[in-house]
Write a structure and sequence with these properties.
Length: 228
């Protein structure tokens, strides 16, 4: 969900015209997300930090080995996935919003951090390159049978997925408000050089437009690769 100017920080958006508490609009967004019926949903690290703000202070040595997999608690029908390149999110629970957690880690992860995750029941995969998302999701499918993921931001992970051509569909919920600040993060925030074109070769086909409650608009687009 974004403001009408494509910004992602809800605390900066103007309030709805009808005076509704913005929390009611966020409930609408959450309901739309669940209606997509995916095997998992996903945040980037910065967004995950909003739910788990504390930092783990490692004391052990880096494992220096990829391919380590731990299947933790699996009581939910969906998984929540996050990618943690620094391996330092302090998880205080094995789940987020009722869904069990799977975290993707690099080889810099320490042994004591892995032990902490296992004790908490948090699933993990250690990979040699957390930025190679195609490989990451191949492993997620292999070990956790996840075939469809609802990626819910933030802009950096959205941009990385866009650049690697891994997005099949854009489900965009427009909140009836404005941010207006140039430097506020947007839907896609690819961290590249100014001459790079992360969306090049991809085109959007409009699938549907639906007006929801309180002035919300829900747009769905299918991604097509037109470079082949």
């Amino acid at each position: 969900m974004s403001s009408v100017d494509g910004r992602l920080l809800p605390g900066r958006w103007t309030t709805p015209f009808d005076g509704t508490n913005p929390s009611e609009l966020f409930k609408e967004y959450a309901a739309i997300g669940k209606s997509l019926v995916t095997d998992a949903w996903m945040f980037g690290k910065a967004t995950t930090r909003e739910a788990f703000p504390y930092k783990f202070m490692p004391k052990g040595q880096p494992v220096g080995e990829s391919g380590k997999v731990f299947v933790g608690n699996r009581t939910s029908s969906r998984l929540f996935i996050t990618i943690d390149p620094d391996a330092d999110i302090f998880f205080t629970s094995d789940s987020l919003r009722g869904d069990n957690i799977l975290t993707i880690l690099g080889m810099n992860v320490t042994t004591d951090y892995l032990v902490a995750l296992e004790e908490k029941g948090v699933s993990y995969i250690v990979v040699d390159d957390v930025h190679n998302l195609r490989n990451v999701f191949t492993l997620v499918k292999r070990y956790f049978n996840v075939k469809t993921i609802s990626l819910q931001g933030g802009g950096i992970i959205d941009g990385a997925m866009l650049a690697q051509g891994l997005i099949n569909e854009l489900s965009l919920v427009i909140y009836p408000g404005i941010d207006g600040l140039t430097t506020a993060p947007s839907i896609f925030e690819y961290l590249g050089h100014s001459e790079e074109r992360p969306a090049e070769g991809q085109a959007l086909e409009l699938l549907s437009v639906e007006q929801k409650h309180h002035g919300i608009v829900w747009l769905r687009y299918k991604f097509h690769n037109i470079s082949e």
